[in-house]
User: What shape does this take?
Amino acid sequence: MTNKKYSIAIKQALALFMSVFLFSSCAFKSVIRSKNIVYLPADNIANNPAQSLNIFAPKKSEALKDVLIFIYGGSWNSGRKELYSFFGTRWARKNVLAVIVDYPKSPKAGYDEMAIDVAKAVKWVKENIKSYGGDPNKIFISGHSAGGHLAALVGIKKEYFSRIGITNPLKGIILIDAAGLDMYGYLKGENFEPGNTYLNTFSNDPKIWKEASPMYFLHKEMPPMLIYRGSKTYPSIEASNEKFITAFKAFVPKPNYTILNGKKHIPMITQFFNTGNDRYKEMKVFMDSSK
Assistant: This one.
């Protein structure tokens, strides 16, 4: 499972790759960037800050484009959307409108608050993305690490969209080395002391751990999924992904599940700096087949 060292390592890796690719030929051409758009206003009574998102759209956009919402990782306690502008830029250059979403972090917020805010971001996209050139009827969600957990939880568990009064608008879910797919099993096995960052996020209550675990809410009406895991990822992520896939097979006997040989956890996201990476083509094929 990811930890403080992971948060530092991914920031360092992203900074390095950004410096290398900053002036590459693909970095700043033919993309319209709309940044810091508030999808959830501040709640001064509850002392909750506003949450915002960045949109990356193809400059030439005669027809409405597929929309890919991305939820970044960071152990549920760190990260910011600006670190993932490369991801949005590259997708826009591939004729997909990308939305990079910020969300509240632990310890100020628990997983449930994070998930409901992600659901509200999806609702905002559904209601507003047409103005930016995106198709509100072709919305997909993706996430890496902790972001993969939130993407899966919101996309699979029915309550998050029902709590904000909409039906699930997602056409598909793309998980990139997702953490926390079986948070119950992980936390039960680790037996952390009170005050641990994961307990701050998921509480000390095993019943809540299960409520936070996408694996226990799979159902026949869930959106189609494309799932990636690195062969050299963290053992906890490998274990939870394998348990998730086993449970998933009860609904989808042949899951769209790929284990990327030799890939560690952080390179599972930094691979997207390479505009020729095969994941772009595979994900686009998945989106085209899931409409």
Summary: Residues 156 and 218 are 6 Å apart (CA to CA).
